[in-house]
Amino acid sequence: MHRPYRYRRLHGPAQPSTITGNTSVCQGTSQSYSVTDVPGVTYTWAFPSGWTQTAGTTTSSIIVTVGSGSGNITVTPSISCGSGTARTLAVTSNVTPSVLTTTPGSRTGAGPGCIGRYSLFRNNLLVCCRDRRCGIRNRNIFYYS
Fold it and tell me: Which residue segments constitute the domains of the chain, with CATH numbers given?
């Protein structure tokens, strides 16, 4: 007796959700990026030139050290029977500001991390200001250019 064959078309996983994470970052900083986790799916991540993945391997949430290149972060989902459509996020790598002084009010000009604004670091975090007065009001600030 002849039995008919049944075929079932197998599909890869659905495209991942939007990648969350910062899009304008300083070189050498550690950044986190993620998509919504789907059980049973592994994720392959790709980064701009010089970026290094430091945690997360093939998971939905990863950590990278930012390199000098700007471009796209890409994540591709896969399961045992194939890969799905990749998702991308455009990112810009900025030169890390260098220390000029620790004297409040001495910073002049717009910094590279804050286009058209004044920039300074407080507790290792970049602070963007509309004018120099924010540096005068704050204490224990390191001014960068």
Answer: 24-94 (2.60.40.10), 99-144 (no CATH)
